[in-house]
What does this fold into?
Amino acid sequence: MAESRAAIRYAKAVLSLATDNGSAEAVNADMKQIANAIAENIELKAVMLSPVVRSSDKKSVLVSIFKDANTATVNLIDVLIANKRLSLLGDVAVKYTQLYDQLRETQIAKVTSATPLSKELEEKVLAKVKELTGKTTEIENTVDESILGGFILRVGDLQYDASIANKLNNLKREFTLN
It folds into this structure.
């Protein structure tokens, strides 16, 4: 809990600084890249969390991976190292993107489908989500063949499951209960 609050504080500070400098969008791109890299790369995550690896080595790894990072992003890494909080970098990156989306009044709609969404279907989903929530929305499409067909839509705390796998599971439950 304390780490989560600290991550939010760092994210707010970086967002404020980046907004003042006019580089909030560039920093948001950096933060998305950092969050994805840490989440997807087990070795990078291990290096970030390791108490054995020196901070200077961690910084050189991060700087080499994120060569084109904005100065605000590099400064954040320096501050986290100085405060011995580099392990929070992934959380700070996630919180930053959430705060940035709130600031822009946009949201992410996560659509899981059995096949990639066509442009036409993507536009229909965007229009429907905007109609329901009143906010500008970006779609993040994930392909999961295990749902067989249909889609699962997640926007914020709401989830709509129109997948074939879900309907089959519901039928299975009905038959086993009767």
